[in-house]
Design brief:
199 residues; alpha+beta; OB fold (Dihydrolipoamide Acetyltransferase, E2P); 3 domains; 5 strands; 22% strand; globular
């Protein structure tokens, strides 16, 4: 089992990334959440999940999924365990909702939140909530957009800039300037974009 891959981003689209690790290009299926986190990176580390489908009457298909956050991979596995919910549907869920938002929708019995996602009807939405509610009640997923601390956002943005090839001192100065310029807009993506303009 491959737990994670760390390497250079050879190609990246909204649904797929090719990560080059020691001369080998790994094709990973990704969600929009992961895409937004890695689209400007030259190298990154992705948590992975190997998904095998088919067999018997249908051809055997093997897919490698990549996740920027471990919480997203964990949620992917939880959702994939639901009868009638396939990997592509799970990817659509995680492209529309962050892991903590999925958890909140399940804990608050928000059937409508899942029904708004393409391919999910009322029965499937209810099944997701019914089968995962107990598990979600025992799991705390930290939000990187709503409850994350200011310092963690700064650190994540700084690490991304270092991964992009800038030295820590230069990146740190650009980041501090960006914090003042964004006027309190505390998203990692916004800070990274503004910092790059300052470099």
């Amino acid at each position: 089992m491959i737990s994670y891959l760390k390497g250079n981003v050879a190609a990246c689209s909204a649904t797929q990334i090719i990560l080059e690790v020691n001369g080998i290009g790994y094709s990973l299926q990704i969600s929009l959440n992961t895409y937004s986190a890695v689209q400007q990176l030259r190298e990154c580390q992705l948590h992975t999940y190997l998904h095998i489908t088919g067999g018997n009457q249908s051809p055997l298909m093997v897919y490698l999924f990549g996740f920027y956050e471990e919480a997203e991979r964990d949620m992917f596995i939880h959702l994939l365990s639901i009868t009638g919910v396939g990997a592509n549907t799970v990817r659509l869920i995680l492209s529309d909702l962050k892991p903590e938002e999925v958890q909140q929708a399940i804990l608050s019995d928000n059937v409508g939140r899942f029904e708004r996602i393409k391919g999910i009807g009322p029965k499937t939405a209810q099944r997701i909530i019914l089968e995962l509610k107990d598990k979600m009640a025992k799991t705390i997923i930290s939000s990187k957009s709503d409850t994350i601390t200011h310092n963690n956002i700064e650190n994540e943005a700084l690490n991304a800039l270092i991964l992009l090839g800038f030295n820590k001192t230069t990146a740190g100065a650009a980041l501090q300037k960006a914090l003042k310029q964004t006027g309190g807009e505390l998203t990692v993506e916004a800070l990274i974009k503004q910092s790059l303009r300052n470099l």
